[in-house]
Amino acid sequence: MRHAFLLLVLLCLAPWVQAASVNPKRLQAVEGGTTYRLQEAWSMQEKAATFTLKPGDYLVRFEDAQALYLVGPDGCADLHVVPPKQPEMANTQTFPCGIYLPKDAAKPASFFFVRGKAPRYAELGPVVNAIIKSGEGSFDFPTSRRGDARLRALLVPMPCGAGC
Predict the structure, then answer these.
(1) Which of 21, 23, 40, 107 has the fewest CB neighbours in a 10 Å radius?
(2) What pLDDT, in 10s, does the model give residues 43-70?
């Protein structure tokens, strides 16, 4: 019964997760892409979560017709959660991340997490595990608000790459 409920929850969430993520396999890879430097930490808050991108170099690794996808250094994003009713349970996790940079300079940038390798749950069966595995490496946009002009303003293209 528990497994059936979990499967139902996963199937209900699947359209939402798909809408808020991009699979880099569907993007065009960029060789020798431009490096953008995030000059200072950038944060945003949504409900009980604070998302923070660390300063550093973000490299253009993928693109599509609308945007460039910059991938940051390992552990470039922190997610800090403080449950309102249980602040003693506050927790911070670090994730690989990137920045969605629209080619239209008037549009704001967004951030994403890079989904890591998922554990395998034998009790869920091969179909559910295949669904989970198919999302590995995807770019997940974790907030309801897309785009931040300040994030875009903090990005500076580096003319000589990351070694500047």
Answers:
(1) 40
(2) 999 989 999 999 999 999 999 999 999 9
